[in-house]
Design a protein that fits this description.
It is a single chain. This protein has 376 residues and is an all-alpha fold. It has a domain of 158 residues. Helices cover 56% and strands 2% of the residues. The chain has a two-stranded antiparallel ribbon with strand order 1-2. The two termini are 35 Å apart.
Length: 376
């Protein structure tokens, strides 16, 4: 079952609930110490709080997080009847319900509680989250030639790390590299940064060979969703109720889709293995269309407040690119959706250029050739 803890866990569009080109805050670079810190400067003051202070603030101490994560991971394995979270080097169970602090605890083998396979699985999940954070901005960069949004997205992701992750040398190295790359780009927008350990450059190199965002098998996702719906039905029956899928049904227990991300809903909508009933499919279609509408509305509102005539089209390009092929099919976002968004951007950019003052820079188009060559 795919569960998520917030609407922006993977990217601004993975949940199909919010939509801005610069709000990607979930993802991870490629391993245990994937990362975060303030993007406003090179240095930061580190403050260590006592367990009592953390408790007073409602923040769990790390020992509690480790213990709870061990329990949660064991349950995921038991539910999947698996002894390892990996199969043939790929994720065999869904780790999306674990937050980033929990994943870091696994990937770093905190207190020696986790196996090598578990550590590798957590590293893959963290890497997937970082890739998801950059997918939309990378699509925008291909169109505009401005790679600054990629670095902003990377810094936003790094800023989302826990204090434990920020304390690692890996995190500090990646943070420093990203900030240095951002400085180079600001000084010379026409040239892509050349910085060792740059996580954005690593993402772009991997994206050229299709080695980003390793998705779980779609059939496995459908199996998880089937099990989750069956559990909801069993819980409803235990409470003397029937699980129902129509909002017009006043009696019974309404299905809860809040725990499913858009790929999980897409598994129901597409129903490739005939695992779902007609009413389940129809209910999932209604849910995913609602989320799509919310995403488009949020994208429009964000663009309207930005003052940038190209913002809405770029938001749509980012949204489209952030979804898997299955999600696009389920929500009805075809190639023509992307083509129309691109055409809208191009026409809006031309109009904006016509009215641009002579003092405005042409940073939106600078650096295009360098970025295009790296992105392919």
């Amino acid at each position: 079952m795919t569960t998520i803890t917030s609407a922006t866990q993977y990217s601004a569009y993975r949940y199909l609930a919010t939509a801005t080109t610069t709000s990607s805050t979930a993802g991870s670079s490629s391993g245990a110490g994937d990362n975060s810190s303030s993007s406003s400067g090179n240095s930061a003051t580190s403050i260590t709080l006592s367990s009592a202070a953390l408790s007073a603030m409602g923040v769990k101490d790390y020992a509690t997080v480790i213990a709870e994560t061990r329990t949660a991971l064991t349950k995921l394995l038991d539910d999947a009847e698996a002894t390892s979270p990996l199969k043939d080097g790929k994720l065999a169970i869904d780790l999306s319900g674990l937050d980033r602090r929990a994943l870091f605890a696994i990937a770093s083998n905190a207190e020696g509680q986790f196996t090598d396979d578990e550590r590798s699985a957590a590293a893959i999940e963290l890497s997937n989250r970082f890739d998801a954070a950059l997918t939309g901005p990378a699509a925008v960069a291909r169109v505009t030639g401005d790679s600054s949004t990629l670095y902003k997205a990377a810094l936003d992701f790094l800023d989302g790390a826990s204090d434990e992750e920020k304390a690692t040398d890996v995190w500090k190295t990646r943070k420093a590299a990203t900030l240095e790359a951002q400085k180079q780009l600001a000084a010379d927008p026409a040239t892509l940064p050349d910085v060792a350990n740059d996580p954005v450059a690593d993402y772009l190199r991997r994206s050229e060979t299709g080695k980003t965002g390793e998705l779980r098998d779609f059939g496995d996702v459908a199996t998880d969703v089937r099990a989750a719906l069956d559990k909801q039905a069993a819980d409803a029956k235990a409470a003397g109720k029937e699980l129902v899928f129509s909002k017009f049904r006043k009696n019974g227990q309404q299905v809860d889709f809040s725990q499913f991300d858009s790929r999980s809903l897409s598994a129901i909508v597409l129903n490739k293995d005939d695992k779902f009933s007609v009413e389940e499919v129809n209910a999932a279609k209604s849910e995913i269309r609602t989320r799509s509408g919310q995403a488009l509305l949020a994208s429009f509102k964000s663009a309207s407040s930005s003052g940038d005539p190209t913002a809405f089209a770029l938001n749509l390009i980012s949204a489209y690119s952030s979804l898997s092929a299955e999600e696009r099919t389920a929500v009805g976002w075809t190639q023509s959706f992307y083509d129309n968004a691109l055409a809208n951007y191009q026409s809006s950019a031309k109009i904006a250029e016509m009215f641009a003052s002579s003092t405005q820079s042409d940073s939106a188009s600078s650096g295009f050739s360098g970025l295009a060559s790296l992105l392919g």
